[in-house]
Amino acid sequence: MAQTESSDTLRSKLTDIFDDASLETFQKFMISSKDLMSCYRCAIMEIETKFRVLDERFSLAHDRNPIDDIQSRLKSPESIRDKLLRKNLPFTLEAIEENIFDIAGLRIVCSFVDDIYMLADCLLQQDDITLIKRKDYIEKPKVNGYRSLHLIVEVPIFLQDQKKLMKVEVQFRTIAMEFWANLEHQLRYKKNLSSDIIEKTTERLSRCAKLSAHLDMQMQEIKDMIEEA
Ligand code: 0O2
Q1: What is the Cα–Cα distance from 182 to 189, expressed in whole angstroms?
Q2: What global pTM score does this model have?
Q3: Index of the ligand 1 atom closest to the CA of residue 133
């Protein structure tokens, strides 16, 4: 019973956006994308292992871990559909592979800001990794205060009968950046808030982002002092 209700809700949500023909196209398309989604999952495994190896080797050499946490996710079908619609793209596997680069996503939460750039460099130096796009929201934060380093990279995955190049988005953040982004995401990101609330909260959220950036800088300086002593 509960199962029926939730699929009914989903269906009605989709019907709000699509007419019957395009709804059917989207549903068929999601069924046909199972194989591609599995390839993205393999790509996440490849990249995650690379970071686990880097963390292991760094901790052996320096007696501390540059990585605090690794999270990963496959973009949800709803989010893929919304992005295709936003970009005015057809529901095809080619359109996804060629235009949507964050289907496979990893978030590397680091201890210090320096660790972010060190790990990003280590990843990009690996000869099976190709950099596709780099957005440095740490050097140039978004107007709301969002900070993070985003890389889109291409990594090969080796299947039974072929090698396939897959794109993966890697977001690097410190614990402080993650703290701000998680709370901002819960409160405001992609929410339809009234302009009054937006006006009242924008400045305060941006001040919190600056405080978190200040905290990162202080912690980095303390670490540098200890290492130089
Ligand atoms: P989710 O739920 O994390 O998957 P492009 O891909 O270049 O066409 P896009 O997607 O805006 O453009 O890329 P961008 O700027 O690199 O940001 C993508 C992701 O960064 C988002 O993913 C968020 O995870 C994160 N992000 C970006 N801006 C903000 C922000 O202002 N606040 C928070 N909390 N997170 C942000 P998704 O797919 O939008 O969402």
Answers
A1: 10
A2: 0.86
A3: 7
